[in-house]
Write a structure and sequence with these properties.
The chain is α/β, with parallel strands linked by helices and about 475 residues long. It has 15 helices and 19 strands.
Length: about 475
Amino acid sequence: MLAELLRARAAAAPDGIAFVVAGGGALSFSAWDRRSDAVAAGLRRRSLGSGDRVVLRFDTAAFVELAVAAAGVQKAGAISVPLPAHASVVELDRVVRHSVAAMVLGPAALGEVEDEGGSGGPAPDAPPGELAEISYRLGPLRPALPTAHRATDVLGAGAALSDGPSVPSMLHASAVGTAVARGALWFPLGPGRGPVVTVPGADPEEVCGLTAAHRVTRWVLDPLVAAFVLDTGAANRHDLSSLAQIVLAGGPSRASLLSRLTARFPGVAIVPVGDDEREPPSMEEGPEVAPVAASQEGMLWQEQLVPGSQNLPPLARRYRGPLDLDVLGGALTELVRRHEPLRTTFALADGEPVQVVAPPRAVVPEIRDLQGRTPADQADEVAGFLDRARRPLDLVDGPLFEPTVFRLGPDDHVVVFRVHHSVYDDWSVGVFRRELSTLYPALAAGERAPLPDLPVSFRDFARAQRRPHA
């Protein structure tokens, strides 16, 4: 379907602009059609078959290249699997294996395939039915689940404005793999549509500023970004009178967010699209779910902007002397039982982040035995682990507190804790050391844990922060 619409638009308006990337870059319909033909031919030369999956790994700043790649993949009869460029190697491996992808395509590889394809010639006939695009949600607050998205959903969402003026639609995509980015490929192909303006990053001031400057009539936003625009007050600092429609794509659009948008934009049509993510826990499902604390909320927003920015440097300490790893595991188990943040992950409910506190669990540190290696090899192994430990943590599936022990010798160990700032802060360092130094010798002596339970849980503390004050 995309190939047919693209050829029609390229014939009717070859110089018309389909995409404009804030900060530079644009793509006309004729260039989009011509370049995607070349990509399709190059993919066929590489034996890509009908129904094969191709992982597309582009960031938002390379949205023009993403559009070319996605159209080329569909013209070749294959299925695209968009993935955020910032996804870790582990996440990439998981997506490739789960989708049984035949190829991973990024900006550099796209150039090679396009050059190989030459003029491309006519695109092959697509198989019966509409090709789906598979997306893996890998943002900081999204589970890594595959979803299918159909073009007609997005085209139908914009039907109310199909006869309107040819002005830009506004796209904000914090991650290329979301329905926001995928849906944007279809918006310029409908009748009477202007170009899509893409905004790298999640800057509400830029979203609202460009809307006012270009008299944008349509926003296509991730619900989390829409909530961010409201929460920061950016929508109140710009003239947004041109807006006629807000399409919420890429996640659950719950009643509270819809009512807030309706109150702020009473004359604007608000349409949820692609509401197909896993249902997050609701606030009433059990005592393990609670609002995030104010400090956590700020950190989670920063994670939306720069994934991994709120990781703490790995906490490492070397212990020379006898170390009973079973007792250490028992002491850590008691610490995690006492302190809810150490067993907390995060989700979205009504478009807002919430903390999800797991039941107490046994903590078994991963043991990496380096005995028998040279001191230089041991140092390189530990240094390499500390460097890799800085990769973004999975805030949805966790864990956000992860102990690892390197055994260098019978009485020589390095203990490393990988933690996220949202569950462990500067104050926690002193508390953690004091309690660990109390628990370990007590448990080693066969005694019960000597520390009393905490008088207030972190969940109650966060709830108290959210209560309106008289």
